[in-house]
Design a protein that fits this description.
Blueprint (H helix, E strand, L loop, with lengths): L1 E5 L8 E5 L9 E11 L1 H7 L10 E2 L3 E8 L10 E5 L13 E5 L3 E3 L6 H5 L2 H13 L7 E3 L6 H12 L4 E6 L2 H9 L5 E3 L5 H8 L5 E6 L3 H8 L2 E9 L13 H4 L4 E4 L7 H17 L6 E6 L3 H11 L4 E5 L1
Parallel strand pairs: 9-10, 9-12, 10-11, 12-13, 13-14, 15-16
Antiparallel strand pairs: 1-2, 1-4, 3-5, 3-7, 3-16, 5-6, 6-8
Helix pairs in contact: 3-4, 3-9
The structure holds NADP nicotinamide-adenine-dinucleotide phosphate.
Length: 323
């Protein structure tokens, strides 16, 4: 079968189309014929040697969608459409492949109103977003900020918080054209940081109150600015570093509002947290209350171009490989 494999972790050129043996549905695994795979910043972190614990050569792809071919039993009958996330593409061969043997607990049936390409980009962003909101004590009426409306986690947190009754579901962008695009798509609480500081925008939108919950996948200056937007007793969850792993913070942004900062690692979640998150997400997908956004698809063989487009092009929405 065809797969896109990172031969070493030394940049885009190391991503090669290879021919590998088709995996088997053994040890309770389910054989999935892939139709699409989500492209994520994790692929880039691994490929550039900036992620702990991965070993080359490695087929990348942390999430994907496909059709069950064997081993799914009654929960996932042959022919059913499924999406998944797990340690694939990080600690074992991943989704950028024609077939993947997936552990049953990592699978979720795709609702009928969601196509495979959209589904392939759902698991990482939406599970991360929902688990982050739950761990931060989200409930209806809270004010939420998730920077980068065009990014996968920022968009998913914003959509979930809005659908679940947040008083304000806010996001941001550094790019004026993306701010306009966000507005056209119905995201009305997006701070355009080319015009206004993130903290000022959040105070303006919330009438001075601030954000009870911040979920930040960007790091760097965005994280330190977002700390300044916290409401009394608020919390910021840091889970990614699209901009930078390092930043300087003003400690009074934590001290004065008695706020806190915490981390989130999706590879360290108990199965119960993931199952609970899937239940919420699937129900909102079925009702149409959340709608995944795909920016562009690329064929499997163009995985390097797809990844470059995600990281350097900073699109609005997901980048997905079609298999
Ligand atoms: N801890 C976990 O378990 C976990 C789970 C999922 C994801 N993550 C991580 O979370 C991070 C975000 O993932 P994602 O999929 O949401 O990323 P993404 O879709 O690639 O979004 C990145 C967005 O961040 C903004 N950005 C990029 N560089 C920037 C910079 N230098 N300054 C300011 N903004 C910048 C851009 O938005 P604008 O152009 O609009 O400004 C860009 O579109 C990644 O590091 C990912 O690996 C971690």
């Amino acid at each position: 079968m065809r797969a896109m494999r990172a031969e070493t972790f030394n940049g885009y050129k190391e991503l090669k189309l290879v021919d590998l043996p088709k995996p088997a549905a053994t040890d309770g695994k389910v054989l999935v014929r892939m139709t699409a795979a989500g492209v994520t910043p994790l692929d880039h972190a691994i490929l550039s040697g900036k992620f702990h614990g991965s070993k080359a050569p490695l087929v990348l792809g942390n999430e994907g969608a496909g059709v069950v071919e064997e081993g799914g039993g009654t929960d996932f009958p042959v022919g059913s459409r499924v999406m998944f996330f797990g340690t694939y593409g990080a600690f074992e061969d991943g989704a950028d492949s024609e077939w993947v043997a997936v552990r049953k607990e990592d699978l979720c049936l795709i609702p009928d109103n969601v196509d495979d390409v959209s589904a392939a980009g759902i698991p990482v962003a939406y599970l991360t977003a929902q688990v982050a909101l739950t761990r931060a004590g989200f409930r209806a009426g809270k004010t939420v900020l998730a920077p980068a409306i065009g990014g996968s986690v920022g968009n998913a947190v914003t959509q979930l918080a809005r659908a679940l009754g947040a008083k304000h579901a806010m996001s941001s962008t550094t790019n004026h054209a993306k701010a306009e695009q966000a507005k056209a798509l119905g995201f009305n609480e997006v701070v355009d940081t080319s015009l206004e500081k993130l903290g000022d925008g959040v105070r303006r939108i919330t009438g001075g109150y601030g954000a009870d919950i911040v979920v930040d996948g960007i790091g760097g200056e965005v994280l330190s600015e977002a700390l300044g937007a916290l409401a009394l007793g608020g919390s910021l969850t840091t889970l990614g570093y699209s901009a930078s792993r390092k930043t300087t913070i003003d400690v009074t942004n934590l001290i004065v509002p008695q706020a806190s900062i915490r981390g989130l690692n999706m590879f360290a979640q108990p199965q119960s947290a993931v199952t609970e998150a899937w239940n919420v997400i699937v129900s909102l997908l079925k009702s149409g209350a959340v709608k995944p956004i795909v920016a562009k698809t690329f064929p499997l063989a163009e995985a390097a171009e797809a990844l470059r487009y995600l990281v350097e092009g900073r699109p609005f929405g997901r980048v997905v490989l079609t298999v």
